[in-house]
Amino acid sequence: MTLVIVLLCIVGLVLLISVCKVNAYLAFLAISLLAGVLLGMPLANIAKSIEKGIGDTLGSLVLILSLGAMLGKLLAETGAAQNLATALMRAFGPRYIQWAMVVTGFIIGIPLYYGIGFVLMVPLIFSIVYRYKLPAIYLGLPMLSALSVTHGFLPPHPSPTALVVQFGANMGLTLLYGLAVAVPAIIIAGPLFSQTLKGLVSEPLEVFAPAPAAETRVPGTANSFFTALFPVLLLMLAALYPVLAPAGAPGQAVVALLGQPSVVMLLAVAYATYSLGWRTGRSMPQIMAIYAEAVKDISLILLIIGASGALKQVLTDSGASTEIAGLLQHVALPPLVLGWLMAAIIRACVGSATVAGLTTAGLIAPLLLQTHTNPNLMVLAVGAGSLMFSHVNDAGFWMFKEYFNLSVKDTLRSWSVMEALVSVTGLAGVILLNQFLPF
């Protein structure tokens, strides 16, 4: 009976979000309350469980996500991200311009949230399309596949960051494993798949191209690269130092502190404030205004993540998660595949990669502990699953359709297939890594 109740609650969540168009934050809260009642929790404890779930989830994420949003917004507003893209175009040249788009999307996609990266990079795609007379889909899809992979697989993006916390994974190791999985996924879903779409006609709408940043206020290329990759470099250093340095080596405590994701993001924002802000002539009030807008941009994302933690806590406190985990142990699927499949199904129903990943986390976490599955790989498996089945209920689907001025049929043929390839290739990479990595 417990499994039936949980499934009904998930269906109810899907219907509220996709059919009734209820905001995901409110939908999660309503379903959390309903789940507590149906699962037989003491009525006085349901609200406490919801509050605890929100607090526990956001307590470790607010710093990372808010600081990450500030860094991304500053990169966009100062023109540093556009500067990176232009430099890569010059380095690769017209012949290898597709690969330049991939590298650009990947580098830009690590610090920037998907929506920001999409809107920022599309004008660059269009300008190159007009300059080199290339098909827009052939040129743009590789870059967007890189943005999509970073969004689903790699911290500090919301869903993988939240999954790292909920699964008890290591942020640095997840990032390293994610990079290994991301590269083949991007290559297959981007440059290789786009070769089949050269005949797909797209006339991008010029009205969508925003005005470029003022050239006099754009930071230098080296400065832009270093600032954008600063948090990634710190996380990788913290993950590799204990492995490479002998036990008891000096600096272990310092590296451990610098490897904390919240500290990494704080240092990155502090450095960006100087390198992209002061050095380009911006005043502190101007920089702080950019940061304030960044927090507004992700406020709803934070609320949705917190509310997803409420549902997870209700399932945990009611004993439903443990009971479901016991049932799932008898399913003839490896835990990593099961996590991927659950996220993929929820993504198909809800349309949001973030919601799919976070909903799956609450259901799969107990099984993760019982089966001793590598938590870093489970983050990537669920992240890959959350990118599957992108169709008409996904905002990204419509962004791609409208910006590239495509029909629904051609959007399904290009965008939806690209997302599916990213997801399946990501799962294959996770399974391959699992064969060679210890727990």
From TrEMBL:
The chain crosses the membrane at residues 26-46, 58-76, 96-129, 136-154, 174-193, 225-244, 256-277, 298-316, 336-365, 377-400, 420-437. It is found in: Cell membrane. Keywords: Cell membrane, Membrane, Transmembrane, Transmembrane helix, Transport. Coiled coil: none annotated. It is a multi-pass membrane protein. One of its GO terms (molecular function) is gluconate transmembrane transporter activity. GO terms for cellular component: plasma membrane. NCBIfam families: gntP (TIGR00791). Belongs to the GntP permease family. This is Gluconate transporter. The lineage of its organism: Bacteria, Pseudomonadati, Bacteroidota, Cytophagia, Cytophagales.
